[in-house]
Amino acid sequence: MPVSNLQIEKILDHYADLLDIDGANQFKVRAYKNAARIVDGLSSNLSDLVLSGEDLTRISGIGKDIASDIREIVETETLSKLLELQEHVPEELLRILELPGLGPKKVKSLYRELGITTIAELKQNCEAGEISKLSGFGKKSEKQILEAIEKFSRRPDRFLLSTARELVEKLLQYLRQLPEIQEIQVAGSYRRAKSTVGDLDILVAGENREKIMLHFVENPEVEEIISHGDTKSSVVLNTAIQVDLRVVDQSGFGAALHYFTGSQAHNIAIRHLGLQQGVKVNEYGVFKQKEQLAGRTEQEIFDCLGLDYIDPELRENRGEVEAARENRLPGLIRPEDIKGDLHMHTSYSDGMHSIEQMAEAAVELGYEYIAVTEHSQSLKVARGLGPEKLKQQMQEIDRLNRELPEITVLKGLEVDILQDGSLDMPEYILRQLDLTVCAVHSKFNLSREEQTERITTAMANPNFNILAHPSGRLLLSRDPYQVDMESIVRAAAEKNVVLELNSQPERLDLDEFYCLRAKELGAAVSISTDSHNTPGLSLMHHGVHQARRGWLEPRDVINTRNLPELKKILQK
Questions:
Q1: What is the pLDDT of residues 94-144, one digit of tens each?
Q2: Where in 66-198 does DSSP place strands (E)?
Q3: Kind of pairing, strands 232-237 and 242-248?
Q4: Are residues 134 and 269 in the same domain?
Q5: pLDDT tens-digit readout, 327-337
Q6: If pLDDT is split at 50, 70 and 90, which confidence band does 58 have?
Q7: How far apart are CA 523 and CA 568, in angstroms?
Q8: 438 DSSP assignment
Q9: Smallest Cα–Cα separation from 341: which of 480, 219, 504, 189?
Q10: Sign of the C-alpha dihedral computed for residues 60, 530, 410 and 363 taken in this order
Q11: Strand blocks (E) in 351-473
């Protein structure tokens, strides 16, 4: 099996982290971090490019040395540089790096001063009061580290949907090599597009079940076979995710797909509806006594029960069954409805590519417009722009708009919301922009009341257009900050502020519940990628799937509008 982009990205990222802990040159560290980010955003498979002899340096951001490293990873499934580094910098330190608040410099200090290499050792030293004795730490640091370890230990064993998608593509490619497989679908929370998934459920219809199951468990990616049967087998892949495969009859494939897609609450609601109509609904079909009325396709199931087809993303028993009976299901947004991206970064701040390169990539996606939104001046770690640098960028955007007739580049800024609710840029500058994307990047530990007041105060500013990643969450690693989201959504509706749905796979913020609440209260939503390179623009579909889970239609999302309509919306 070819090495996946995910595996390459992880190796490059691990190498960068260990270099950082080892005190390597920051330019080298950043180069590998940027390369990992590029690989993560690529739509093409790097293994295929390597095996076909493609020059990887043609990919912007991939230099000669890193291209050579990628070829080595594809050919050997490892990186000799990483193995050499691990001889004197323990790989276990990467687990400590996952704890919020502990960057490479602090992890290096813990390792060099106290010999700490594991989270268990870190916890033991915190409890013994040893951490507070180190330079750069204190009693408060010890308390915060212990709290972070407690949260880390309770972290659910789940995977980002984006991670699962790459694994699924590889799995399906492998399974489809077998001609006996006639139909194949991934079910479960993956098909419902939940932001994280626990395991993968795959359904197959085909001839020769024994051969299909043997092919499945003999996948080279399988690390452990949990069970191996005629109708169901379960394995754990070398990426630690469990995969269950079921072989079903083609006559009941649609019924099985509906049942195993779930959710459980949706299935119960459908089963009760069937009982009311005098039929039995299960994973084999719809039955009137012993006669099968439907089951070949999902559409047959819904038709038999007098329901409109319910998209998988809606199957959570949140009113979708009633809406399907009354012909009032939403016409959910689709990726092709998006006309532009309103949040991205370029080489002016912490992005990798120029404005022109981002614009040209957006043209390839068929967009009418993009907004360039660098970080503002207070976010120094991201090389935030001050007024003079921003003016320089605005002049470049004016020039590009004269030279690029296919697309319009809007002048924007990702403006920090300061602790008192003010915005991190003079008003006279903000008034010159086409839009602002305003965000909380600091003081995450404010109380619920303080954080809510901070954001709602900022929203009252007439130059505030879009609230970026509203809850501040990072899936599987950072909880949302304490904030009254109901009040935030209400304030957005009242003040004509747009709520962003950030498409970064580790954010997907706004969550589905507040997407629906925004729709109910009349607050508009934007779906943006927050991309830092050209491949990142392709992440838009992640946000669209999240929006579909929140019942959003094209009319609920501002960047489905053409440019004149968008500009009208942005004029508060």
A1: 888 878 778 888 888 898 889 898 888 999 999 999 998 888 888 888 898
A2: 159-160, 181-186, 196-197
A3: antiparallel
A4: no
A5: 999 999 999 99
A6: confident
A7: 15
A8: E
A9: 504
A10: positive
A11: 369-375, 408-416, 435-439, 466-467
Same domain? 422 vs 319: no
Q: Looking at the structure, do residues 139 and 234 belong to the same domain, yes or no?
A: no
> In the prediction, which pLDDT does 536 show?
92
- Mean pLDDT computed over every residue of the chain: 92
Peptide bond just before 526 cis, omega within 30 deg: no
Question: Do 146 and 127 contact (CB within 8 A), yes or no?
Answer: yes
Give residue 309's pLDDT.
Answer: 98
186 and 314 both lie in a single domain: no
Owning domain of residue 123: 5-153
Under 8 Å between Cβ of 316 and 327: no
CB within 8 A of 422, min separation 6: which ones?
A: 458, 461
pLDDT (average), residues 11-37: 89
Q: 556 near 524, Cβ under 8 Å?
A: yes
Does residue 255 contact residue 284 with C-beta atoms inside 8 Å? yes
Q: Is the dihedral of CA 541, 543, 547, 550 positive or negative?
A: positive
Distance between CA 113 and CA 129 in Å, rounded? 14
Q: What are phi and psi of 6, to 5 degrees?
A: -60, -45
Q: Do 461 and 404 share a structural domain?
A: yes
Q: Which of 280, 296, 325 is the last residue of a domain?
A: 325
Q: Which tokens is 439 given?
A: 């965000």
pTM of the model: 0.79
